[in-house]
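User: Predict the structure for this protein chain, please.
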Amino acid sequence: MLAQVEASASRGQLGAAGPRGLEIAGLRPPPAPGERVAVLSAGPPLLAEIVATRPEAQQALPLGPAGGARAGQAVRLLGPARLDVSEGWLGRVLDPLGAPLDGRGALPRGGRPRPLQADPPPPGLRARLGPRIGLGVRALDLFCAMREGQRLGLFAASGIGKSTLLAMLAGAPGFDVVVLGLVGERGRELREFLEDDLGPERLARSVVVCATSDAAAPLRREAALAAMTVAEHFRDAGQRVLLLLDSVTRFALACREIGLAAGEPPATRGFPPGVFAELPRLLERAGPGAEGCGGSITLLATVLVEGDDHDEPVADAVRGILDGHVVLDRAIAERGRYPAVDVLRSLSRTMPGCLDPAQRELVARARAVLALQQEMAELVRLGAYRAGTDAAVDTALRIAPRIEALLRQGRGEATPQDAAFAQLAEALADAGA
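Assistant: Here is the predicted structure, written as structure tokens:
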């Protein structure tokens, strides 16, 4: 793990260890927030990250259990965190420090280590989004069509099928590499996801970075940063990368823990201001590379909305940064339709440029049918609407179930995008549609 950072000759001393982290003195010159230190003891060194600095001391949060930390122990400055990514990482599962989690030995190293904190390509020199891509999920390919290099958020409360949808998207065709960042994942779910959802064939072209829910806050935040760093390595090599990040919310919660420990004041619903600075720093790194690079990072990130409140601070901030949002609705899931995508509330900002005129017309007609059916649903349930009163309503009530059936899709089922549009046209084939 120590190989993933730059060693320094600067040494200090641990002054105190408590609930808010470690207090370190004597490091000269003082380290900047984000740099790593190692607390040296008789056993393996304890890694920690500097989160606040003062003239007389620095505050650090440990990256592991700090039960053995004692005042007076020597502290060594290690410098900024880096990952030595290589092509040999494909098919591997690792933690944010670059240590293997799959029991297959050490990961091979590449050439130039990459910093975990990096800037996105300059906006004036960044390539434009690529061509339309098919994800194999009909609800998304029809109503939230994407382009290569786009960033899309999957917004849902807990238990509505975000992880299952993410597993379906991991098999999307047209990508050279898939990078999965599992932030705050339940420990028992990693092998289930790898073996049941991903499978050996998909894993062979994937890199999985995982920090479980019991990991320290700096490690959970670093899982997202490490996944982005791995994706950037393959993008800069000219490859088309699909980055699946689960979830941005747990990344924000880890940033909140770090910010509060560093003394930031809680502002918006308990989130310190630093959280809303970290979100764009992470998400803006995804997308096309610099002009001439040829590679891209297409990002699909889940956002856990608390209490089905889609206007809570993290969801609201992320929605403003990304290039579109997919809303998963609990009422749709309770009806048994999966994936539970609410197509009327979902939006892809690049969709107008993705589809030809005939496809745009199909999608517009389908949206109008679903919107009218939803508007009249309560009256129909109460028996207040009689068939034949309105021809447009009669048509919507007849066609909407066909569209709903088309949107229902099993976990192992994938549909090419052109075939999905052909099925939609068939569902809309009605004299009054």
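The two ends are 62 Å apart (CA to CA).
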